[in-house]
Amino acid sequence: MAKILIPTPLRPFAGGQDSVDLPGATIRELLEALTAQYGDLRKHLYNDEGKLRSFVNVYLNEEDIRFLNKEATEVKDSDTISIVPSIAGGRSWQPWKHRLCR
Amino acid sequence: MATMEAPAVPVTLSNEEILRYSRHLIMPEVGMDGQLKLKAAKVLCIGTGGLGAPIGMYLAAAGVGTMGLVDFDIVDQTNLQRQIIHGTKDVGRKKLDSAADRMQDINPNIRIIRHEVALASENALDIMKDYDVVVDGTDNFPTRYLVNDACVLLGIPNVYGSIFRFEGQASVFATREGPCYRCLYPEPPPPGLVPSCAEGGVLGILPGVVGVIQATEAVKLILGKGETLAGRLLLYDALNMRFREMKLRKSPDCPICGPKRTIHQLIDYHQFCGVPRHPEAPAPGLKEGEIDAVEVKALFDKGHRFVLIDVREPHEYQICRIPQARLIPLGELPKRVHELDSADEFVVHCKSGMRSAKACDFLRQAGFKKVKNLKGGILAWSDKVDPAVPKY
């Protein structure tokens, strides 16, 4: 089982957990298993065309999978997968929230 | 006689400065040469908020000779939990003045240049072009992409820091060989994926740690010493007190620093990020399906039978509440809707009216006919009905 680290902004969509251990031979299989377990995560990780969103990076250990074999990157049981979305600041993670939450 | 090329302004240290910087001067990594480099350096800090506070204070103390500050905001009470460059006495003042006063008090030898503007495509290159290093302490995506692109176009290193709740990121972008922010994240998140109000917030100390890392990187860039974060993304998790590091590569597809670049000048960053440049003010009147706080109070006073539902999170309910309200957090509403009787009348509220509008939509779709949204949420209740209810 590989370990997937869930970042703070996505934890509410993953049952509040900061990491999940899942089986899978590739990044694609692992993320499939993750979104099968936590359906709400899907729209945060994938766009409507089913591609990984460009503001969410996935790392195999410390390597960005975009520079490996993308989602076909092979995963070993001892590997750690990090999901690292872009965050924007102190007031909120997105500027328009300022408008919504005042 | 041959003339020697000399710097335009010869930089020296006064006796007061030698004493002030003595702990720098006696260490070989800085020394007199390094301290003179710091004095000659011009650093622009974008924002004087959570990140800008430690950046500004430490770079002033370290003796960076010229510090530019960009901000147009006013200090408010909710800033003081983390923006330690401002004090309680500064509430209501311009952040720029408050920050500059504090920095000048820390070090009267430095020159502070105030840029009281919202950084925008029209002014960014002009403001940034004279600086050696830019430190990005902004809190929103349009400005982040703007700062990145301007730094790449001008060839100025960009010391990046970003925070959310108890997690931080830091790196150095736009060095001669290194990647830029667009290599890391080609595009911002679309506005549709906004988390609810309940998921915001930031641990007050977090920007301190991340800002100090940024200040450290700025000093190293000026000194030309050590290994900077260029090519590395530092991740900090305050809750588990863990630092991790990811490799960051220059993207061959990067639209601004790659070989196939398509961006050659600054663009409209609000459009790029899908956010309005000037957020529209809420309409003054009531929209269909809304009810005013005063009217809700009148319903209570008349003894009118209705159910008031609070769809905020439990931790918000602990801060303040309307006594008659029943707490059902928005996320739990779908599975708890059976607790409600669709024959009843409902008024739904949250903090400011956004989440409760979603809850009203949900209830109407579920067949509830008599549902109204409390316009302006508990903030409006505090303003118009009961000032004893604290605002947050």
Structure description:
The complex is a heterodimer of chains A (102) and B (392). Chain A has 102 residues and is of the alpha+beta class. Chain A has a single domain (2-101), classed as Beta-grasp domain (Ubiquitin-like (UB roll), Roll), CATH 3.10.20.30. In chain A, 21% of the residues lie in helices and 21% in strands. Chain A has three helices and five strands, in the order ββααβββα. Chain A has helices spanning 27-37, 42-45, 96-101; strands at 2-5, 19-22, 56-60, 63-64, 80-85. A five-stranded mixed β-sheet of chain A has the order 2-1-5-3-4, with helices on one face. In chain A, strand 3 and strand 4 form a beta hairpin. The longest helix of chain A is centred in the first third of the chain and has 11 residues, at 27-37. Mean pLDDT of chain A is 86; it is low at 90-102. Chain B has 392 residues and is an alpha/beta fold. Chain B folds into two domains: 41-273, NAD(P)-binding Rossmann-like Domain (Rossmann fold); 290-384, Rhodanese-like domain (Oxidized Rhodanese, domain 1), CATH 3.40.250. Chain B has 15 helices and 13 strands. Chain B has helices spanning 15-20, 22-25, 31-40, 52-62, 95-106, 124-128, 141-154, 181-184, 206-223, 269-273, 293-302, 314-319, 333-336, 354-365, 377-384, and strands at 42-46, 66-70, 111-115, 133-136, 158-164, 167-173, 232-237, 242-247, 290-291, 307-310, 326-327, 346-349, 371-374. Chain B has an eight-stranded mixed β-sheet, with helices on both faces. In chain B, strands 9-13-12-10-11 form a five-stranded parallel β-sheet. Chain B starts with 14 loop residues before the first helix and ends in an 8-residue tail after the last helix. The relative contact order of chain B is 0.10. Chains A and B meet through strand 4, strand 5 and helix 3 of A and helix 7, strand 5 and strand 8 of B.
